[in-house]
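> example.struct
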């Protein structure tokens, strides 16, 4: 009989220069929320924006991930050494 679930080691990424450890499989958007950061970017007028749909539709969760601007944080799983930079 197979194990129903396999435990994965937590992963540590950096959000705006701060090390954050989350369970493996956590999306970057969820990691932001777990740290109390709900703002991922600002719109052209400077108003704060954050994840709305959580499934890649609204584009409100964009941030810079590993140097790639405008990346949808809700679709990227956290992994060790990931570098996330937000506007908020
Ligand atoms: S939360 Fe809507 S695209 Fe990421």
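> example.seq
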């Amino acid at each position: 009989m197979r194990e129903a679930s396999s435990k994965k080691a937590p992963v540590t990424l950096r959000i705006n220069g701060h090390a954050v450890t989350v369970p493996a499989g956590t999306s970057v958007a969820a990691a932001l929320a777990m740290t109390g950061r709900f703002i991922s970017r600002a719109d052209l007028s400077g108003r704060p924006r954050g994840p709305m749909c959580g499934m890649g539709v609204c584009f409100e969760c964009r941030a810079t991930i590993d140097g790639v601007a405008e990346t949808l944080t809700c679709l990227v799983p956290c992994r060790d050494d990931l570098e996330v930079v937000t506007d908020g």
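> remarks
The pocket of FE2/S2 (inorganic) cluster is lined by residues 29, 51-54, 56-61, 72, 74 (CB under 6 Å).
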